[in-house]
């Protein structure tokens, strides 16, 4: 279908224009060739008429008019009798009615005239008329008649008739050569055009077939991206890169789903075990009974939180409505720090934070901003060792505010650092556990959500190396 469509467009466009230009060029060439060939015959005859007229002009300059006219008539008869090109032309003298008075061959062959040329000479401004016709014997001839410009007795016109056999032969040879060249040019144009079009159609067919396989889920298929060093080659490389990215995303998604399934199975297993245990205890005051109910409640809350985070993730992918307002960035950061401070101490760590004295007004969604801070703190806690320190630093410039959360955790490998914003990515040095920030674009040790929650221009900065301090910093434009 694609091949047919491209070739059809090429035929309607480029090839059709080429044919029209070729036909126009050949038409003009044949037109001027025809005029040159047959016009040359006319010009040759007219030159002979001019020679005769010159002799008439020099004849009979003395004496009365009748004597002069008769002298000119005699000159014309002698010219006809002594005409030395009888093998090429037939010279005739005509009276006022167009009747033949004399011929260079000496015979009154009326087959060589149909009177058209004489009639045209009578109506022409220059007194010359021509006609091409076919004799009864089937020979094409040209007859040219010129009215005698001076009185010459009964002679009113001169006619020269010549055969067009040689001229017609040359004309048809010219036509044959011209048409032959046109056919060759057209054939070469079609061949070269089809070769060029197919050189595009063939790789596009491969691209189409490969893209179809990718669309059907075959992420292993690839295009040969080294065969063409042009736009087609770049397109092949782009599609291959797209296939690799899709394959990587699919792999990460599958790992993510596997991880989620495992994390969901853990509390369900605990709940199921305790339900079976409680079912065998009849005394509600039993310590194991109360402990089982407590664990079931805790695990149920955990499951509820996980499901809510999955729903948040789904909402983020489909677009989430922001309820932005002017708020104090410092106050939001301080509230988040107070919220997680008790947990930080419980984990044997300490929080270092110096609250700026002046507010930092920003345009943001307060609920989402708080969620981002809590998620970043949660991951910093998870990947810090007991006795470690977590640093929160706020700063501003005339046009931006920034928040930096830095921990002393294990860090991120350089290879993983480049993938921090890939969906579903999980680093090699990750620990077990389902992140609270699972619906963010994130990696182990940090959760990114700023670009989702702020309707303003922003930048994410990540500074991290394996086995060193981890720093995540966010700039917001005021």
Explain this structure.
This protein is an alpha+beta fold. It has helices at 2-57, 65-81, 116-123, 165-215, 231-279, 287-317, 329-346, 366-382, 414-417, 450-453; strands spanning 89-94, 100-103, 128-134, 140-152, 155-163, 325-328, 350-353, 361-364, 389-396, 400-407, 441-443, 446-448, 458-464, 470-477. Strands 2-1-5-4-3 form a five-stranded antiparallel sheet. A five-stranded mixed sheet has the order 7-9-10-14-13, with helices on one face. It has a two-stranded antiparallel sheet with strand order 6-8.
Quick tags:
five-stranded mixed sheet, alpha+beta, 53% helix, 14 strands, 478 residues
**Largest sheet composition:** 5 strands, antiparallel
Low-confidence regions: 432-471
In percent terms, what proportion of residues is strand? Answer: 15-25%
Cα shape = rod-shaped
Largest sheet, spatial ordering of strands: 2-1-5-4-3
The Cα radius of gyration reads: 52 Å
The helicity comes to: 40-55%
Quantity of strands, as a count:
14
- Please write the string of helix (H) and strand (E) elements: HHEEHEEEHHHEHEEHEEHEEHEE
The structural class is: alpha+beta
Number of helices: 10
Estimate the mean pLDDT confidence: 79
The termini sit apart by 54 Å
């Amino acid at each position: 279908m694609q091949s047919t469509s491209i070739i059809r467009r090429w035929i309607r466009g480029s090839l059709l224009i080429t044919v029209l230009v070729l036909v126009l060029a050949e038409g003009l060439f044949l037109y001027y060739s025809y005029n040159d060939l047959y016009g040359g015959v006319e010009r040759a005859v007219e030159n002979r008429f001019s020679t005769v007229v010159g002799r008439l002009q020099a004849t009979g300059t003395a004496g009365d008019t009748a004597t002069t006219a008769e002298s000119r008539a005699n000159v014309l008869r002698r010219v006809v009798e002594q005409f030395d090109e009888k093998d090429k032309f037939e010279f005739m003298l005509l009276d006022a009615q167009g009747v033949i008075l004399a011929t260079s061959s000496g015979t009154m062959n009326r087959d060589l005239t149909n009177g058209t040329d004489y009639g045209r000479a009578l109506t022409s401004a220059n007194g010359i008329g021509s006609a091409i016709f076919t004799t009864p014997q089937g020979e094409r001839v040209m007859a040219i008649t010129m009215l005698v410009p001076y009185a010459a007795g009964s002679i009113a016109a001169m006619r020269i008739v010549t055969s067009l056999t040689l001229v017609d032969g040359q004309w048809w040879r010219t036509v044959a050569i011209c048409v032959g060249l046109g056919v060759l040019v057209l054939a070469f144009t079609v061949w070269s055009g089809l070769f060029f079009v197919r050189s595009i159609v063939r790789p596009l067919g491969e691209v189409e077939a490969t893209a179809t396989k990718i669309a059907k889920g075959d992420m292993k298929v690839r295009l040969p991206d080294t065969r063409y060093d042009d736009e087609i080659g770049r397109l092949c490389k782009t599609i291959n890169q797209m296939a690799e990215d899709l394959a990587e995303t699919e792999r990460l998604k599958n790992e993510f789903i596997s991880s989620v399934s495992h994390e969901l199975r853990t509390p369900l297993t605990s709940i199921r075990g305790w339900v079976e245990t409680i079912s065998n205890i009849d005394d509600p005051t039993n310590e194991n009974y109360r402990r089982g109910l407590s664990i079931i409640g805790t695990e149920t809350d955990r499951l509820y939180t996980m499901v809510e985070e999955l729903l948040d993730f789904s909402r983020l992918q489909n677009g989430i409505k922001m309820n932005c307002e002017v708020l104090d960035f410092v106050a939001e950061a301080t509230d988040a720090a107070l919220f997680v401070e008790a947990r930080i101490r419980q984990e044997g760590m300490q929080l270092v934070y110096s609250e700026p004295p002046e507010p930092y007004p920003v345009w943001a969604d307060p609920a989402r901003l708080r969620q981002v801070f809590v998620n970043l703190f949660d991951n910093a806690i998870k990947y810090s060792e007991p006795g470690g320190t977590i640093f929160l630093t706020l700063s501003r410039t005339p046009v931006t505010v920034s928040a930096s959360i830095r921990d002393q955790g294990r860090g991120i490998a350089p290879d993983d650092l480049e993938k921090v914003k890939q969906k579903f990515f999980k680093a090699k040095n990750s620990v077990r556990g389902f992140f609270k920030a699972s619906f963010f674009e994130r990696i182990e040790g940090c959760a990114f959500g700023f670009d989702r929650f702020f309707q303003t221009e922003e930048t994410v900065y990540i500074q991290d190396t394996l086995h060193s301090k981890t720093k995540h910093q966010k700039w917001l434009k005021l």
